[in-house]
């Protein structure tokens, strides 16, 4: 509908309805809301177009990065005597690939291919890609005693964990594939009060020597299979957003009347439930095992790039192998726009300086952002830390995490102006 014509209709309708009886007030409100939504429709369409472009390019980059990781793993696991430098190189490639993947997490909970099995052949992909926490005992058992096949690892994912091996005695599921399974295979356990990444795994834990039955050969096979599985699932997600494929999801997404509502609800749920909820609040007790990437100590990067993913959609921009400049949420959210922008900036206050495999990746830190090792910082809840660690914990606990929660609340408020109600379902709002 033409914007000027819509405005005239809204004003005209308002003049007519204002002379009606009180009983017509609800009708007036509903009709005005409907016309306002019609006026916003072109803007919503522009945003959904940008959203779909960013999704395709972001998943394309994540897939490309995992292909590079898998290529390194293929060469590494084919060797009888791999070296420590080769193992560290794979760890670096894992970290680099996480950067692009983490930015895609903002697409979760929006009825899209990542967690809607109806769009992916009845299989929900997200638990096969990024599920956590991990039952280390299960993986150790498979490596030491089980038979490893690619399909077997997929089938075992999210099965009930064996008695006595559930993390912290809870009822977690087996996680046999995905980012965190690969992470554990590369770094090993990160024991409580061990303030470095997991250091129980070395190059000697991988080999093709002595046949396929020993634990080292099984670990090599497990690492290769799980990386290949991750590559395949990211290709599936990339293809789902590919506008050149007639069977892709993206055409339906851009034309569906519910897509904009689903996106607002999904971003709110991810911000207030997963990212700023379970993941961040889980470490308030000081337990290292509650870190999202506890084996590699990559958790600061997890949180930073989750924020970057929202930043991309907010501004309608993306920088990767291709650059996108389009229509962002900031153009739609009215008075809440500046409020959300400020909180995204706060959510990004992490210095990415925990890389031990390639120190060239470390950033230079300053006192206004979290610069401490994340596991040392959260441990200050239970043990005394340095002044910097204490200050960093306070910044995380009392500024960063609340800012992410406030993003979800602001989206709840914003959604109402579009006739969308976002309840608290799936959110962990404080």
TrEMBL record:
Keyword set includes Transmembrane helix = no
* Protein name per the record: Imelysin
Q: Where does this one sit in the cell?
A: Cell envelope
The yes or no answer to whether the keyword Acetylation is present is no
Q: Which organism is it from?
A: Leptospira kanakyensis
Give the domain of life: Bacteria
Keywords (A to Z) from UniProt: Signal
Domain Imelysin-like residue range list:
56-344
């Amino acid at each position: 509908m033409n914007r000027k014509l819509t405005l005239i209709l809204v004003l005209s309708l308002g003049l007519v309805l204002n002379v009606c009886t009180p009983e017509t007030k609800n009708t007036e409100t509903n009709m005005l809301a409907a016309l306002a939504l019609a006026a916003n429709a072109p803007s919503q369409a522009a945003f959904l177009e940008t959203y779909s472009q960013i999704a395709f390019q972001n998943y394309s980059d994540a897939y490309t990065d995992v292909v590079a990781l898998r290529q390194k793993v293929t060469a590494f696991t084919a060797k009888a005597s791999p070296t420590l430098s080769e193992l560290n190189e794979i760890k670096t490639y894992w970290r680099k690939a996480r950067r692009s993947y983490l930015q895609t997490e903002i697409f979760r909970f929006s009825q899209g291919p990542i967690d809607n099995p109806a769009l992916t052949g009845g299989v929900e992909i997200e638990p096969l890609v990024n599920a956590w926490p991990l039952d280390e005992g299960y993986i150790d058992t498979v490596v030491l005693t089980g038979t490893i096949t690619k399909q077997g690892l997929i089938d075992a994912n999210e099965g009930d964990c064996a008695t006595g091996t559930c993390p912290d005695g809870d009822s977690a599921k087996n996680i046999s594939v995905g980012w965190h399974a690969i992470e554990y295979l590369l770094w090993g356990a990160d024991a409580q009060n061990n303030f470095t990444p997991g250091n129980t795994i070395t190059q000697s834990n991988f080999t093709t020597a002595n046949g396929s039955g020993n634990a080292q050969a099984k670990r090599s096979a497990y690492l290769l299979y799980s990386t290949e599985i991750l590559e395949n699932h990211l290709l599936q997600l990339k293809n789902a957003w590919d506008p050149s494929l007639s069977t892709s999801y993206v055409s339906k997404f851009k034309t569906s009347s519910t897509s904009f509502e689903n996106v607002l609800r999904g971003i709110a749920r991810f911000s207030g439930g997963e990212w700023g909820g379970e993941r961040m609040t889980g470490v308030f007790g000081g337990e290292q095992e509650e870190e999202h990437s506890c084996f590699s100590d990559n958790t600061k990067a997890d949180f930073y790039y989750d924020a970057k993913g929202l930043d991309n959609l907010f501004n309608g921009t993306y920088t990767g192998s291709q650059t996108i400049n389009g229509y962002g949420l900031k153009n739609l959210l009215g008075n809440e726009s500046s409020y959300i922008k400020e909180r995204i900036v706060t959510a990004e206050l992490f210095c990415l300086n925990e890389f031990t495999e390639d120190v060239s990746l470390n950033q230079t830190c300053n006192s206004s952002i979290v610069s401490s090792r994340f596991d040392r910082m959260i441990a200050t809840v239970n043990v005394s830390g340095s002044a910097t660690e204490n200050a960093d914990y306070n910044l995380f606990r009392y500024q960063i995490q609340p800012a992410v929660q406030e993003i979800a609340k602001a989206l709840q408020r914003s959604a109402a102006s579009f006739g969308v109600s976002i309840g608290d379902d799936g959110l962990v709002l404080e």
